Amino acid sequence: MNRIIILISFLFWVIAQIVFYCFMLIDYLLLFNIMYIIAISILILIQIKKIYKSKNDMKMKVTTLTFCFIILIFALNFKIINRFIEKIDWIILYSSRNKIIEQIIQDKIEPQYYIYDLLYRFPVVSYGNTIQILWYNDGTVTVQFWVLYDSTDIPSFLYTNNNNLKKDIEKYIINNENKKYTNWKIKDNWYRLGGSKNTEININAY
User: Fold this and answer.
1) If exposure means fewest CB atoms within 10 Å of the residue's CB, which of 50, 76, 167, 179 is most exposed?
2) Is the pLDDT of residue 27 over 70?
3) Beta-carbon neighbour count of residue 202 at 10 Å?
4) 23: helix, coil or strand?
């Protein structure tokens, strides 16, 4: 029974990560994660106390305790959480972002000082509901979607059909092995770039 409750709470936690992330409620997400970690820690202490006091059904109690420890370690590893949410974000919101790209290319969205406010558009496809749009002299375009607010970095999903920029990004990825975990090619014309601390690519220079 304990394991079922813990499993349900873990699934609830995963769903909460996605919901908070989709609405970009990062401050609330941090508070929720802290409360969840405290709750799991209390469950671990309760299980340790039960194991110490009784030897009955020891196997189930040890299994439950191990399961709690695994969830706690996973919950404490924010990098794993962020990457997990990013993957879901990419899959779920790819179609919505692609529609915005099509509208931009068809001149249905006009950039204002290169930053375009999507107002109250849902789902939220970029942190702050704003995107960066850069038109180049050759008629190509780059669109940047910020995917997660972080106190140390703001990564983004970047679309570009500018061949020179694509070559430079891919060259940068190859030549900077130490930053391959923050910068990579997702698919044709799409890249995942780290924030200013994790990439030196200047998308404005084309």
Assistant:
1) 167
2) no
3) 9
4) coil
Contact indicator for 118, 126 with CB cutoff of 8 Å: yes
- HSE-CB at 186 with a 13 A cutoff on CA atoms is 17
Give the separation between CA 47 and CA 197, rounded to whole angstroms. Answer: 42
Angle formed at CA 166 by CA 139 and CA 192, multiple of 5 degrees: 115
Q: Please state the separation of Cα 43 from the chain's center in Å.
A: 28
pLDDT in tens, 90-105: 888 899 899 999 988 8
151 touches 189 (CB < 8 A): no
Q: At what angle do helices 78-105 and 58-76 cross, to 10 degrees?
A: 50
